[in-house]
Amino acid sequence: MGHRITDDENYSLSILKTNPFIFFRSYSLLNFHFSFIFSYNSQQMKRIVNLLLFASLIQACQTNSKSTETSAKFPDDSVALCSTTSIPSRFTAAQNSPSDSIVSKGKDAAEMVRMPGGKFTMGSATFQDAQPLHEVELSPFLIDVHEVTNAQFAKFVEETGYKTVAERPLNPSDFPGVDPQLLVPGSAVFKAPEQVQGMENHLQWWSYVPDANWKHPEGPKSSIKGKENHPVTQLAYQDAEAYAKWAGKRLPTEAEWEYAAKAGKHSNETYYWGAEKLENGKWLANIYQGEFPSHNSKEDGFETSAPVKSFPPNDYGLYDMEGNVWEWCSDFYRPDYYQQSSKSNPKGPSDSYDPQEPNTVKKVQRGGSFLCNDQYCERYKAGSRGKGEINSPTNNVGFRCVMDI
Fold first, then answer.
1. What gap in Å lies between CA 385 and CA 394, rounded to an integer?
2. Residue 178 covered by a domain
3. DSSP secondary structure code for residue 61 in this structure
4. In total, how many domains does the chain have?
5. Which residue from 376, 370, 18, 365 is spatially nearest to 218, judged by alpha carbons?
6. I want to staple 164 with a disulfide (CB 3.0 to 4.6 A). Which of 48, 117, 239, 281 is the partner?
């Protein structure tokens, strides 16, 4: 099976001389394109190909810049944004959240809310891979009130000694001919560039940073000290799954996630809370304000992640179902899945396929992050779907857990 090198990959190859880490990643990428990577029976080799050259693998919103065609087909609903009188206040709801339905469950003793189960309309008319709109019925389940925090993940690591994908050493024998000094653990980190030449090459604001991991999400000089109540990030899919299993839980299906986000009250609005982005001048989620990617005006008070529960909950008492950090779901990603998905407790397709990167394995991510904005990444909006390569952690992806009843 052939694979045409994309413009992003050509861009990556063009900067080999200036960045040794890009050189190493591109070396692996060429192995990938000539298909002899599969002669190595090594998860490390697969990880390094997908993780270290993330030029064409950065999550979800990097492939969703608003096109002229999309804008014409789905214009901003300025009329809907004016219809605010019938929308209940989320700030009022925050004072009247359903505390009687909150329970502490799992080994992590996290607060969880019981989802009643039932039918809802899943999908979005705005995003092609979230169509068609379809009715889904779910059984009751419990879901974490907020995203898993640094403190919660630290407890898991303390009890188990677990090492995340970004922390694991790389075996030089898996990479013949590559300088062992280049084989360093690390991960992808967003950094605002001083200047941007077009929006096509996201390597202008994403960098592979050695020793970036969940304890040092922006690199070795950063720390989670004082951020214990922030959502944990820099986790690959298997890291989130390992925590969930330890806690006696699991990761949500994207149907469960969307059902919880819509809170039984919303179906066609732009946002999970309704049609209005702000309420009385207050931001309702931690997303990007300003000129992406160079100038974050921080109108919501945060440049990167925010402490959990910083913004009002939805009507089910759940926080940050929109913005803050992307959240891993258990479903494989396929853009055509909704055309044949099950109507009862769907669990996603049996395999992954993304036509933009057909040789990668991706899982669904939901909710958007502090980097989402209407200029470049609209996938934080209601019903939209994100996607992430399973072994490529970044500093804007986390997770929350669910539990069967």
1. 17
2. no
3. G
4. 1
5. 370
6. 239
φ/ψ region of 319 (left if φ > 0, alpha if ψ in -120 to 50, else beta) reads beta
Number of residues assigned to the chain: 405
Token duo for residue 214: 């969940």
> What tens digit of pLDDT does each residue of 103-142 get?
888 899 999 999 999 999 999 999 999 999 999 999 999 9
Give domain status of residue 247, yes or no.
yes
CA distances from 171 to 60, 165, 166, 393 (A): 29, 13, 14, 19
CATH of the domain at 340: 3.90.1580.10
- Banded model confidence at residue 100, pLDDT cuts 50, 70, 90: low
Q: Is 310 helix (H, G, I), strand (E, B) or coil?
A: coil
To which residue do tokens 């080994």 refer? 107
How many angstroms separate the CA atoms of 399 and 104, rounded? 18
Convert the pLDDT of each residue in 17-43 to its tens digit: 233 333 333 333 323 232 222 233 344
Residue at token pair 């209407």: 374
Tokens of 73: 């087909």
Domain housing 309: 65-167+222-404
Query: Is residue 133 assigned to a domain?
Result: yes
Find the radius of gyration of the CA atoms of the chain: 21
Q: Tell me how far the alpha carbon of residue 134 is from its chain's centroid.
A: 23
In a domain? residue 305? yes
CA–CA gap between residue 243 and residue 195 (Å, rounded) = 39
